[in-house]
Sequence to fold (775 residues):
Amino acid sequence: MALSRLSLRSTTFLKPSSLRRHVSTDTTPITIETAAPFTSHQCDPPSRSVETSSAEILSFFRDMARMRRMEIAADSLYKSKLIRGFCHLYDGQEALAVGMEAAITKKDAIITSYRDHCTFLGRGGELVDAFSELMGRMRGCSNGKGGSMHFYKKDACFYGGHGIVGAQIPLGCGLAFAQKYSKEENVSFVLYGDGAANQGQLFEALNIAALWDLPAILVCENNHYGMGTATWRSAKSPAYFKRGDYVPGLKVDGMDVLAVKQACKFAKEHALKNGPIPIFYLLVRPKHQTKPLSSLPIMQILEMDTYRYHGHSMSDPGSTYRTRDEVSGVRQVRDPIERVRKLLLSHDIATEKELKDMEKEVRKEVDDAVAQAKESPVPEASELFTNMYVKDCGVESFGADRKELKVTLA
Amino acid sequence: MAARIHGGAGAGAATALSTFNPKKLVAPSRTNLPARSSKRCIVAAAGSDASKSLRVGHSQKLIANAAVATKAETSATTGTGHELLLFEALQEGLEEEMDRDPHVCVMGEDVGHYGGSYKVTKGLADKFGDLRVLDTPICENAFTGMGIGAAMTGLRPVIEGMNMGFLLLAFNQISNNCGMLHYTSGGQFTIPVVIRGPGGVGRQLGAEHSQRLESYFQSIPGIQMVACSTPYNAKGLMKAAIRSENPVILFEHVLLYNLKEKIPDEEYICNLEEAEMVRPGEHITILTYSRMRYHVMQAAKTLVNKGYDPEVIDIRSLKPFDLYTIGNSVKKTHRDVPTPYAGTLEEWTVVQPAQIVTAVEQLCQ
Fold:
């Protein structure tokens, strides 16, 4: 690590300071300790030393800055009534989306709730597709028919984008089941919030996933508020990572992108290394076969301790159930982007000015995307009836007034 | 009594004629209608009521008779063929599809080692193993959701509800996810699941186990619903449903599982969107489906003796609704008697043949 620092310094001396220094794209591995230790349940926690590189940390900064800017732009678009309906913003939680991506591949599946804009971006989604979808335009990732809560990206194994709290959990276990069925060496990350953690279907799905040894990793994004209700008011035991009982769990500082990366990497390795334990079917009479007791389930629960700056959605000011001091306090002490900035500066990977320039670039990128999205046309009326059925079976469908709108789904 | 058309409708009315899939596997359709007219009829949305069974009626005898009657009426297509019971036909269809496509899997309570509570999946676990015939714990919401999630990636799960009433617990998954994901993802994901299970009035099964949920599911966009009534169409619909890219809910009936019929040896599927002409006639059209078909055929015999010529159509496809067949029929006869699956006490719950006869006579006056 010291050597790489020296080499950086030497290049600085060689180039005149008036020219913009080329920001480090060094991929030599460096090791950084996470800010806080992991708390584990039914397993040994991973090491606090995270392997990364300058280039990677820089990419974290850029990606998180882009996500932050996107959410702020969405905020102002909503206020100017270009985005309507529900809009749930993710700013403050960027480290989760970015850290997870760093640990996995695009073949691993992710499924999340309605707070999905940044996850979509992390999966490789384009800014212009995101804004178009938010504004209900054809260019949107779901052709404008989904909206804020229904972002999907099939080629990157991003399965959305779900409005009903907790309903994505069984879906996510189904994804893991399909991965096991097809014998793929991939895992599924199933994201849900502290509010959804009290849903019955979580425990139903958890039971099946553990029983059938599915490569599912349940990730609880604990931002401490289920809309307006704090965790201490809704959960008797807010230790969400322990709720799996026999399922190993890990509590992670979700504002530290490196900790998130480490935890996700750990979980994926655990799921794939231990391998699914085959369910034996003993063809022996009498009928009551006993399955050999499996050892630790391969699935895990990761609880990410994170925070959202905005309210639950755009219609929630976010200040009736928490103080402004609390929000600004978290922003000062735990902001994920600031953390990475400090890391970059202290390790001399980039200068203050370079980071500011990068932020300016990102801002421009976002503004351009918004402008482009605004140009995108709204869906045609005929789009109302497409994608109802696959190979729409000749059903005739009407709009609100039969005389005005009548179409055969074909 | 003015003639009226009974039907269920989803978002708006539905005329359903998919271009009949010209697979060579399809056996000749049993309808004998001429070329379909393009005229449309307006359908009033109507729902069927849940039925509550209390006392055992003498339906047992009726069903047995009706089954025999049907067997005699619907001639086997060819001389060869094999005889089996309805649940065996379902099993055959399922097994053939599982042989044909490794993506097909079955999940449900007691479908595997136990062989299925109505023996529809008997022997499949031995043949295909535990990964393809999955015994789930009792959590309808979760395993239905899992089936839908697996379908998003390309698997073709067949989800069995031990009783249709239990699927109410999974209604959120069926309605919000199964029905809507294809639409809200802009066509990115298809959900080729089949959700099947028995429902309907049985033998003193109690109120909660005797529900008919067609009307609840009718309002969900994006799903197809079919109801089988004979071993022939049970196997055909099961196969078609599994092959369909759309989510299909296949309604079976507890009391029909032991119906016996001869079905063709060669492979065939039934069209998911088509109704079946059971008995062509001139005077009046009677629409029916599932178990009521047998009551209607019983009534038809009486009517014929009294000099009427009823046309009986088994609508089979509940969503989308095959209005072509029905429309043509009603245009021919100008009269229609719906037989909804109504619900009061057991005998009055199920429309009895005598009542059907009376209704027809009233209409024909």
